[in-house]
């Protein structure tokens, strides 16, 4: 690729029309800029699904940086995990011009947690995954793995469905909405310090009380009445930045 600015990559010909259509809801340029992405960084993307963000990150980092991807393990407990991994890896093989320099690792706590050389990563990123770890009661294992991979001073960037501040743990485990306070608590337990928040991915139309939680809204639309939920748009999301202390022995 000749033009590897974020602004060009998010609308590039290598991306499907369906993926490009979600730019307005996911704000990839603004989000990655908020997290401080630079083309010479070593970056870790955690659980990328089919690669919506990888197809932006991989060409952006290809010349000067490095991209590790921590995907599901072939030994993942849930049946969908090895299937999604296989679909992702097939795409990497099919499109070497986009994904050829990506290093794919597996994350499957507590067995597989070494997703990059310890202390080698400048920026770790995860998008709409924290609720899954909470459901599996593995949130602390995941954050500990990110802490281990990051350099002192490195950044952890998180986008997650945002629950009402008074939501209890049962709500978080069933709705996919998580409180900002609990994400901060998990990060603090792992040793991170909070480094800022953005309303880039906020949606004030999201009432967060839908029959199928976050999955009622696009793109899942599990509750039917598509016109109603499409009018609301995608979920209200927090965008949080944490940092590994320069003196990482302070954990």
From TrEMBL:
InterPro entries: S-AdoMet-dep_MeTrfase_Alr7345, SAM-dependent_MTases_sf
Segments of this protein annotated with the region Disordered: 203-222
Matches recorded under Gene3D superfamilies: Vaccinia Virus protein VP39
GO molecular function, one term: methyltransferase activity
Keywords associated with the record: Methyltransferase, Transferase
Name used for this protein in its record: Methyltransferase
Signal peptide: none
Protein's organism: Halopseudomonas pelagia
Biological process according to GO: methylation
């Amino acid at each position: 690729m000749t033009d590897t600015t974020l602004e060009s990559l998010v609308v590039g010909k290598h991306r499907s029309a369906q993926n490009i259509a979600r730019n307005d809801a996911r704000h990839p340029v603004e989000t990655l800029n908020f997290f401080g992405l630079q083309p010479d960084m070593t970056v870790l993307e955690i659980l990328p699904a089919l690669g919506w963000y990888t197809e932006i990150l991989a060409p952006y980092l290809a010349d000067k940086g490095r991209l590790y991807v921590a995907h599901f393990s072939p030994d993942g407990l849930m049946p969908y995990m090895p299937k999604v991994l296989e679909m992702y890896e097939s795409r990497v093989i099919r499109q070497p011009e986009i994904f050829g320099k990506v290093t794919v690792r597996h994350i499957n706590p507590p067995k597989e947690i070494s997703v990059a050389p310890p202390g080698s990563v400048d920026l770790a990123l995860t998008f709409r995954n924290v609720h899954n770890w909470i459901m599996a009661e593995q949130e602390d294992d995941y954050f500990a793995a990110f802490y281990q991979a990051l350099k002192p001073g490195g950044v952890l960037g998180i986008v997650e469905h945002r629950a009402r501040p008074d939501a209890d743990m049962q709500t978080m485990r069933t709705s996919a909405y998580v409180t900002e306070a609990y994400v901060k608590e998990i990060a603090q337990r792992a040793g991170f310090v909070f480094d800022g928040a953005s309303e880039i991915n906020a949606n004030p139309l999201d009432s967060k009380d839908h029959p199928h939680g976050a999955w009622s809204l696009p793109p899942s639309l599990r509750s039917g009445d598509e016109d109603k939920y499409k009018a609301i748009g995608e979920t209200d999301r927090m965008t949080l930045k944490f940092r590994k202390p320069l003196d990482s022995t302070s954990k």
